[in-house]
Amino acid sequence: MPATARILPFPQAGGTSAVVCGLGTWVPPRVVPNAEIAARLDTSDEWIHARTGIRERHVVDPGMATSDLAVEAGQRALKSADTDRVDALVLATTTPDRPCPATAPDVAHRLGLDRCAAFDVNAVCTGFLYGLASGAGLIAAGVAEQVLVIGADTFTTIIDPDCRATAAIFGDGAGAVVLRAGSASEPGALGPFDLGSDGQDADLITVAAGGSRQRSTRRPAEPGAEFFTMAGKAVFRKAIFQMAGSAQTVLRKAGLGLRDIDRFVIHQANARILNGVADMLGQPVDKFVRNIDQVGNTAAASVPLALDAACASGELRPGQRVLLGAFGGGLTWGSTVLRWPELEAV
């Protein structure tokens, strides 16, 4: 169990809880199959799929930014929730349109949500879970009645296209949910959250250049420092350990057991990581939703994209108990549980 994890209080019966009432996603239309990048990376479609579980990914066209994906997903989530107003917008992303200002206010403006609170959250691949917790906190505090939470990333804009370790893994996409104030007993109500971090391993997942640490030197960045890097083997082990531990923590807080969970929807980082978490929890792999073969690792968009895919296929049905989980740079991790609601498909 991660010693550094902190558990947020579980909503008391009769209190105000955040309830999922809308879901929407969007991926760029351009599809890049493994074969298109295999020759450049001196590998093969078979090798990429065997190592990652990925067959294709969606990639932004030149000039397309994270906000463009976020707006599309946000529109669909608002339509799903049958609302055109929210009190706050939380955008989870590691690839903002610009270092300053935050991307969320622009997304809110383009969605017609002027004057609502809007801010970015950067917890890398755990961003959507941190965003959900932020939205739930705004509702619990009485600051907002409805919150739009978006996870959107264009990771293909920050990876070295010739790096075999990362170029085949990542794709671009966005997913969003609308949260509303409601009762802890109704379908869609978010349960307890487990959120944690371990900054001593911050360099395992990083973009070295572009921040104040590098810029304050007044020297040009080292060649390649502008690209995303990841210590694959170390991240692999920590991702399995932390996501499994976080799942156990949040279930204990919720008063549930592993057998009570119908579906696990966790960050689609790598098919072998999904299998590793299943093994560590002693759960059958078919309880773990996966769409990584079609979209790759989409960072903060990963969990909502997997939710949408599972809903569309009928794998995820109203009334099922679902555990959401993720692990990302920081290092960060998080989990929550809910009973899946009836949602209008968009």
Automatic annotation (TrEMBL):
Pfam families according to UniProt: ACP_syn_III, ACP_syn_III_C
GO molecular-function terms, A-Z: 3-oxoacyl-[acyl-carrier-protein] synthase activity; beta-ketoacyl-acyl-carrier-protein synthase III activity
Annotated spans, ACP-binding: 268-272
UniProt-listed Enzyme Commission number(s): 2.3.1.180
All copies of domain Beta-ketoacyl-[acyl-carrier-protein] synthase III N-terminal, residue ranges: 119-199
Reactions mediated catalytically: malonyl-[ACP] + acetyl-CoA + H(+) = 3-oxobutanoyl-[ACP] + CO2 + CoA
Domain of life: Bacteria
Subunit structure: Homodimer.
Protein name per the record: Beta-ketoacyl-[acyl-carrier-protein] synthase III
Provenance organism: Actinophytocola xinjiangensis
Gene: fabH
